[in-house]
Amino acid sequence: MDPDKCCESGCTPCERDPVGSEPRDLCNYIDGEFVCHSSEQWKNVLQPATGERFARVPLSTRTDVDCAVSAAKKAQPSWGRLSHSERADWLDKIADALEAKYEDIAALESKDTGKPISLARAVDAYRSVANFRFFAGLIRETYAGQREHFEMEDATNIVVPKPVGVGALITPWNLPLYLLSWKVAPAIGMGNTVVCKPSEFTPMTADLLMETIHEVGLPKGVVNLVHGDGLGAGSPLTSHPDVDLVSFTGGTATGAKVAAAASPIFKKLSLELGGKNASIVFDDCDMEKTVEGVTRAAFLNQGQVCLCGSRILVQSGIYDDFVDSFVNSVESMKIGDPSDESTQLGALISAEHLSKVESYVELAKQEGGEILTGGYPCLPKDFEHGNWLAPTVISGLSVDARCATEEIFGPVVTIHRFESEDEAITIANNTRYGLAGSVWTSDLEKGQRVAEDIDTGMVWVNTWLHRDLRTPFGGVKDSGVGREGGRWSLGFFSEPMNICLKHD
Ligand code: TXE
Asked: For the whole model, what pTM was predicted?
């Protein structure tokens, strides 16, 4: 084998462009080295706010995927033999090193995704560090004492949490490092080695994570990264015979392809897919707090969060007042330059995605909807080539309308009137999705009762996106399969083996 190549099929070390230089060409990270990809193909990385190119991402191929999987496979046995607490120490080291780059994470994420810098700091940078730290603590706490065991009269059963093997971690563009770290930390913490495939639209903080992992000296091959698109890199990764588990977050249509690729060889699979979540507002809610909470749920990250409350159901007694206050609240949000600290709404991820969202607004008009607020924001010339849409509120649609049941994944919400608790629940469940939802009422008993009847994986009462990392995260119906979060992540990223010891 050529000593310059990291595996038989060949990937050569690449000279990294210095961080901060523009435009930058990114490299894959395989077997502890930044390496070139095997094709000549690149994709431009554009700033959503301005349309300017600021980097190029490799369009890797099956050859690169093979290389990365073989590095991960080679590294797994010795990594898997470390104790849980030794691996937790590595997670803490990564958390510390990432924390030192807090502002870089926020700035890169804001530039790459078009989201406001304040949000990138408070949510993306914060959670990326917190994910590593949280799983370090949880793994230590869970596996510090005696192993879980079940006594019989004449035998003892001991449950041994073994690593699954090589994991493929595929992430989307809306919360790039937040979601990647949410998968990498428990996956490697439980003794697996991984190949990451971040979204080709937002690769910058995944590169930063690899740089961080390299700096702390994580054993080579434990974390590998292949850049590229779904067809060239994602698909060969999910169908690779040496990949034992796939954790995917993305669109429902892509999730179906991933499941089809992974299931013939029985890979362990976790799919976090789309949502069309209802925010249910009862007559007895605290109006001011509810308007604030429902506005945040509707438009955080320009509505590009799978948990966003994109259908707002309001009880008839307060419908008119609520709609007035809600529209006022939406119109007061500051949209514009993502690097401005006071900005609340940034740009959409891509021109293609903007067109998809715009097409839903057009469809809403054809379906008989009334646009209560929306349109295009008036912005300085620097942003004329960006992907902008003002937060849009649509009323008057049937609850069966396509805009009221399909995932738009942008700053567009529909608002509907209901009379009774039962009707609210029926409307909330009237979609193929089942990820999340929120209920707004001063009666917590009613809040819990309604929440239990909603067919989703998560419901918040009088709050939204109030996350405790110990709780299960995931959806039902077309929103996915499986749960991650807390001990559910530890369960997914391990295989519980039972050893039965017969007593004399
Ligand atoms: O996501 P994709 P897209 C929803 C949202 C959006 C739609 C499509 O409605 O409009 O999905 O968005 C990789 N095998 N969400 O097209 O394609 C891809 O490269 C393996 C909801 O941007 O699902 C990327 O890394 N991988 C969602 C990742 O999958 C494949 C967040 C997600 O991309 C692949 C984002 C394949 N065949 C969009 N094809 C959420 N749940 O939060 C693509 N990929």
From this structure: 0.97
